[in-house]
Every structure is written in C-alpha cells, then in structure tokens.
Design brief:
This protein has 2 helices and 27 strands. With 338 residues, the chain is mainly β. It has a 7-stranded mixed beta sheet with strand order 9-17-14-22-23-26-21, with no helix packed on it. It has a 5-stranded antiparallel beta sheet with strand order 4-3-6-10-12, with no helix packed on it. Strand 15 and strand 16 form a beta hairpin. It starts with a strand and ends with a strand. The N terminus and C terminus are likely disordered.
Length: 338
C-alpha cells in the first residue's frame, strides 16, 4: 500500500493542545499483493503431464481463491496512535474502499504517530478487530471454537511510524502485507472406491497482533476444509484459508502415538492435515499428514495425494509424515505432552 501524505503549511505544533494545529491531510491508499498462488498452481497442477483431475482442480482453486489473493479491498480501518505513554489512539477512520486504490482527506494535527491500517475485516466470517483503542493491544481476533470454517476474505495489515511535520510536504510509503494464507489437498481417488472424504487441518494461529506483526496460539482449533466441485471424475479437491502455522514444532505432539502406522518423522511436524475416508462398508479410515515445513502469511501450498483401497491417503511428498488409523471412530484422538 503506497501512501502519499500532503501536509499543508503554516501550522504550529503545540504539545499542550494538538487541536490548535489540525489541518486537512490527503492520503492516497493503494493495495499491493505479493503471493505465490499463480506459481504454485502452475507448477503443481498445470504442467505438461498434468492429469484431468489436476487441471480441473487448478480451475476450481483459481475460482475459489480469486477473492482471497486479490489487490481489491472492500473496507479499510485506519488508526493513528500516540507514540508515548500508553500509545492511545488519537484518530480513527473506517471507509468502504471497494477498489485497489483510493484517497481520503483526514483532519489530523501535526504530530508523531504510529499508523496502522487493516483491510477486508468487515465481511470476514471469523475475524474481528478488537482492543484497538491502544496501539499495542489491537489485534485481529478469530472466533473461539473447537472446529471452525475457513476464512472467507484475504486479510491485509500495515503499520508505519509517521512523523507529521510542520510546513513540509511529505510522502510516506507503506506496504500492506497479507495476514492469512491458504492450502489445498488434491486427491486422486481412482481405484480407491471411497464413498466420501472429509479434510480437516490443525496447528494454526488464533489471533494476529497488528502493531508488531506477530501471531498468538491460544488453543488448537480444527479447520474444516471446503470441498470444491470438479469438472471431471476420478478425484477431489479441498481448500482452506486460515492463519499461518508456527515456524517451529510446538511443545506437544499432534499425533496419537498408538496409531498402527506411524512415520518416524511424525513428531517433527509443525501442522497437520487430517483426512477421513468412508469406505463402502461404512467404516472410516483416518490419515494424518504431518507437515514439517511452516505455512506462512501470504503463502499458498498445494498437496497432491493418492487415496488407496483401504481409505488411507498417500502423499507424493516424501517429507510428509503419515499416520493411519483403520476403522477409525470419533473420540479416539487426544494430544499428549512430549
């Protein structure tokens, strides 16, 4: 997000009374997006040897993510905080932007600020902006529940120290970074005879602190992936938009260590994909795929897997840890401390 701030001349700064030097300031906002979405889809699903299922998944994912990885902002929330004492908010505005760039005239005094901006929160089904009366407490809070849906908007935030000076035209350059990310699971089901498949994910953050760009892991919710419609048989595709994972493994194992088939690298996983396949006899096979690489903000990651005759899911990536429970029943899972 590029911001041009024009400061009119002739204002004297009085620390005792900031209102004495209030003037109109013009800020030009432009949303900028940096993501690997197109590259990931091209390299994973749209190659010369891609199957019909992979090509159909590519088209479905582009449609699903078109309003997530986008430079279009529906709404923006702008806050200007004091930089001393408790960093209280001195000025606040909210606008419906509905564009990738827009201009606003703000009536604020010459002063030193910490400026924060948040985009696309109003229509998000899970995220709310909370505790933003003070700079260091403002955060994007995710609804608390054991099981949640995926985010339905791409979240963007920015923060910038702004020293608005007297009698000087100034330009401030601010970059807006994406705060959430996305994943996809593309499943080859030929020969597996599975009747149904559900995909859940876990191991992601629950809140985002705007001022210092850090994530909070209050608890471990399960994210239910969306199943996408494909234009060809023989496969399935699931997608999710959520907060990032940790960068390193947490202090608890996310695997049940009594599973009959468990990869040795399972304990090194950072986050997890759980697939539940229903077989023709009604039994359910649970496969846990432990991902050892972090999922970061702005990133899109595709995983390609093969569904086997017993309902288990076999990943193409050899670095993915695999744990399988045949004839799985709900209520068998629990986390254990290492």
């Amino acid at each position: 997000m590029a911001v041009a701030l024009v400061i009119p001349q002739g204002c004297s700064l009085l620390d005792e009374n900031l209102e004495d030097c209030e003037k109109d300031h013009l800020l030009n906002y432009e949303l900028r997006l940096v993501t690997n979405m197109s590259t990931e889809i091209n390299t994973q699903l749209e190659t010369d040897i891609s199957t019909d299922v992979e090509l159909a998944a590519a088209a479905a994912l582009r449609n699903y993510l078109k309003n997530i990885f986008t430079d279009f902002a529906h709404d923006v929330d702008l806050s200007f905080y004091d930089v001393v004492e408790d960093s209280v908010r001195l000025h606040h505005e909210a606008h419906i932007m509905d564009a990738n760039q827009s201009s606003y005239t703000l009536y604020i005094p010459v002063h030193r600020y910490m400026h924060t901006a948040v985009a696309n929160v109003v229509d998000n089904n899970l995220i709310t902006l909370e505790d933003d009366n003070y700079c260091h407490t403002g955060h994007l809070h995710q609804a608390v529940a054991d099981t949640i849906s995926t985010h339905n908007t791409g979240l963007f935030t920015a923060r910038l120290p702004m020293d608005v000076l007297e009698d000087l035209d100034q330009t401030f350059n601010v970059h807006l970074y994406m705060a959430n990310c996305a994943t996809a699971l593309v499943v080859d089901t030929l020969g597996s005879h599975i009747k149904d498949l559900k995909v859940h994910l876990t191991g992601f953050a629950t809140d985002y602190n705007i001022c210092d760009s850090t994530y909070t892991f209050q608890y471990t919710p399960v994210v239910v992936s969306d199943k996408l419609d494909l234009s060809t048989p023989g496969g399935m595709c699931f997608a999710s938009v959520n907060y990032p994972s940790r960068d390193t493994r947490p202090t608890k194992s996310i695997f049940e260590t009594t599973d009959p088939f468990l990869s040795e690298s399972a304990a090194n996983s950072i986050w997890q994909i759980r697939a539940y396949a229903t077989l023709p006899n009604g039994s359910v096979t649970e496969t846990k795929l432990g991902v050892t690489k972090p999922l970061r903000a702005g990133q899109f990651k595709i995983f390609k897997v093969k569904a086997l005759f017993n309902g288990s899911i076999q990943p193409e990536d050899p670095d993915i840890a695999v744990s399988v429970a045949l004839d799985w029943e709900a209520g068998q899972e629990h986390e254990i401390a290492l």
